[in-house]
Amino acid sequence: MSSFKIAIASGKGGVGKTTLSVLLYHQLQKAMNETISLVDCDVEEPNSRIFFPSSTQTKQEVAIQEIPAIDTERCTFCRKCVDVCEFNAIMMVGALKHAEVNESLCHSCGACEYVCDQHALGTKRVAIGLMTQHQTPLGSLYEGRLEVGSVMQTRLIGMLKEWGPSGHIAIYDAPPGTSCSVVETLDEMDYVVLVAEETSFGLHDLKLIIRLVKALQIPFGVVINKAGLGSTPLKTYLQQQQVELLGEIPHSIPFAKASAKADIFDSMPSVIQGAIETVAQKIKHKRVEV
Ligand code: SF4
Ligand code: SF4
Questions:
Q1: Ligand 2 centroid distance, CA of 164 (Å)
Q2: Choice from 83, 109, 125 to test ligand 2 binding pocket (greatest atom count within 8 A of CB)
Q3: What mean pLDDT do residues 39-62 have?
Q4: Strand partners, 247
Q5: pTM here?
Q6: pLDDT value, residue 32
Q7: Nearest residue (CA) to ligand 1, atom 4
């Protein structure tokens, strides 16, 4: 059967997105009886793996970004490259014959090399993060971890998605919010599960990410986490907007405590289990529909 890529996203952090990703990783495998991978795209703070203390590392690769390096012997300091760089990444002082490319700003677009008729631009390799594959009791878990100080979240996520699973069902745990990193994670997804909570901030941020997913034209549905805890008219909003409610995970203090200790599989209340099964069944049917 064809691949099916599902992203789990939320307009804000702290709504239980990673917990839901891990629960669906577990439940979809049972519901669909196929190989499922989990890809942790929250590269600034990947934490899906803490739910699998027995996992073992199977593969690792340093994510490399190639940025230009200016050969000041060949360079005539014409500044064409400085002018073409959309990201102000090139710093040049002709009088001092000094030129350098700022690694944090460079997006490796290649424009500077294109305009340089002196062939003064070489290549420098910069590590932007680590990509790791782990074997968990449920299957493969891919994780990206950004190099400290790097701002190349989007690039690392793109590389992780290429390096990671192919040809089967994969769940992509997106970074929180509506940033470029989230857009990069959602790119080429077949379906998006948005996780929300019934608070004022939750509704506000859900509206933002619904706008984003609609703009990207990806089918989506919403899961309310910690249902019953807040009192905003979130469900009314979903009805008005004709957004599908995939399920509600009830608020449970014992489960919240278990989740905080990354111990969710052995101590899952039956109401949580039932809610996850409902969501998984609905997602299973999406594969046929999309
Ligand atoms: S375009 Fe080439 S020659 Fe001109 S300043 Fe840039 S590196 Fe130097
Ligand atoms: S590769 Fe692109 S972003 Fe990087 S320095 Fe050259 S023009 Fe600027």
A1: 27
A2: 109
A3: 95
A4: 223
A5: 0.89
A6: 85
A7: 78
